[in-house]
Amino acid sequence: MGLDIRWPIGIIFTIYGAILMIYGKTLDPSAFESSLGVNIDLWWGLALLVFGVFMGALAYRASRRSQP
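The structure assignment produced for this chain is given below.
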């Protein structure tokens, strides 16, 4: 069976990361006062995006390796 769980995990994390990064970029800078001036949405969006791309790359590599 060719089901690899890394594909949906990578897609979901990439989408959520992109949404969170866009939200962090468009947010008013005065909202960062409670987090000591750090745009947490932007940084966590970037982390989710990187993780999603990493999982997608692992799934792609595994699919290329399993083909003859």
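Interim note for the steering committee: The longest helix spans residues 40-66. The chain has a mean pLDDT of 89.
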